[in-house]
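WARN no homologs supplied; continuing
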Amino acid sequence: MTHFGIVCPAATGHLNTFLPIGQKLKERGHKVTVINFLDAQARVVAANLDFSPIGTHDFPLGSMDDPLAEMGKTDGLTALRHAIALFGRKAAAIMEDAPQIIKTTGIDVLLIDQTSRGADGVAEYLQIPFVSICSAVVLNADSSIPPVFMPWHYRPNSLLGNMRNWMGYQLLYYISKPISRVLSSYRKQWGLPLHPNPNDDYSSLAQISQQPKGFEFPRTDLPPYFHFTGPYHSEEHREEIGFPWEKLSSDKPLVYASLGTIQNKAESTFHIIADACKNLNIQLVLSLGGSGDKTMLPSLPGNPIVVNYAPQLELLKRATLMITHAGLNSTLEALTNGVPLVAIPITSDQPGVAARIAWTGVGEVVHIFRLTAPRLTEAIKKVLEDKSYKEKALKMQESIKKSGGVDLAVKIIEQVAATGKPVLPNQV
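OK structure emitted
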């Protein structure tokens, strides 16, 4: 038996990635402790995993709500700056509190979200192995690939494209300095070398992405121990959410719209979505992602079904199209069901996910800074009427089925724990 520790953000999308891994490891006889902020405790306990809190002074229960609400009202680089400031504070909490928790609980191996900065330094300091897991789109820097926060298209074998990408990464490193200062301070305190290349923060034993390989640009700089396993989402341990199923029409295509649980506070965006759909022969279900009481919204055009939270996995089984913020989890959940997409990326890695939606042909993209009801209507009609989007979504569905999912991810993790050596794809 190995004692695994999980370090990931407390946000819903990240927990939806890591909790199925933890549950599968526990089913296989291992012990799993989630090291996280108090806002994640209820979800972790409901998943029947052990929980150890960090940052209880700076992040008491409910403290994530205000910064996340602020992020939800912004977009683009402004929202990204809010996220980076929050990540810097979280990194300090991880590096301050996690070492003692790991020593006390006897954790053997860490499973670290790529966005949980500082946790790799904790593993190095304690000299325990760790595995990097991408719950967002692959974050590894690569000059041939645009930075994930940019809405740029993939331009292979292009000198200008590579220069553009390089400048994008320099901008990211510049605005990420608040995080870098925290990491450098603790690494110096612990006598660890600094990491000038952010890719050095990731595991040298195994790096795992929940993307299917076909949903990633052709990369030239991934390590040999990088694995594409496909997604891990599961209905089994998600909270049951009520829904007025009796209101669904049997004779109209279902279009499901959700902007996730963070970047969802702009009422104007919900209004544009409803306005774009009002004259189409579809039924719109609009989820507010927990952003507030649906009665607070003005009367939306077209009389859509509006809910605060939606049973997303169940609705996607019935949906013809999903309108999404292009969060990776929602995107992969739609593609797992063969549902094409219209993406409205807002910030963080969403522009990068949207670029992959366009590149793979599984949907259309309308960027938030160009969003109008007519443009959105045009994109929706295009995806509904052109069969190629559905066909490519079904091909991606088949790719996901063959990717291995949580079972493959757990095999890789167990092999790292058993050998302490890099795990290559042909060794699993």
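The two ends are 19 Å apart (CA to CA).
OK
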